[in-house]
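#onboarding

Welcome to the new folks! Below is a worked example of what a typical request in this channel looks like: someone posts a single protein sequence, and someone else replies with the predicted structure as tokens. Don't worry about understanding the tokens yet, we'll cover that in week two.

Example request:
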Amino acid sequence: MMKTALGFLFIKLKNFVNLCITAKQRNLFFTTGSNIHQSFKTGSDNYFDLSPTALFNIAENVTINQFNYITVKSNAKLNIGKNTYITRATISCLGEISIGENCILGEGMKIFDHNHQHTKNPFSVSKTEFNIGKVKMGNNVWTGANVIILKDVTIGNNVILGAGCVIYKDVPDNSIIINKQDHQINYF
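Example response:
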């Protein structure tokens, strides 16, 4: 009986701590000049690296659920339209990322608005210098698992991005992008 009571108490305490952490993390989005709707929700176990000088525009009924990794650096802008749901995603914003309304960003999805600078002669890749661009996602976009969206891409409205796709060029409205792979079966 004592074990059951202690277990119950431990679970209640853990849930309370998680609620406190989630509330504190949610407050990181409220930077000067940002516009955050009161219905904006975050789940537990997120990692947020958000600059106090970043700008956020988050519309009504936006949910950033669990296990997301979101970085928005100094003077960068992240816009998320109403009724958008994000889970288990990575969003890395050094410039500007805009996500439309009614989007579902699936598990393992990654968005990058930048890439590392490099030189050819001599060959070198910078750890701290970046080519910064933009990503614009329209309304009603659904990303399957493990989609990667790279810088300087515009995704139209009413788009499905199939699992495993790497989006490196613009996607028109009303389209479905699939990762065409041939499975070759070899017998021994």
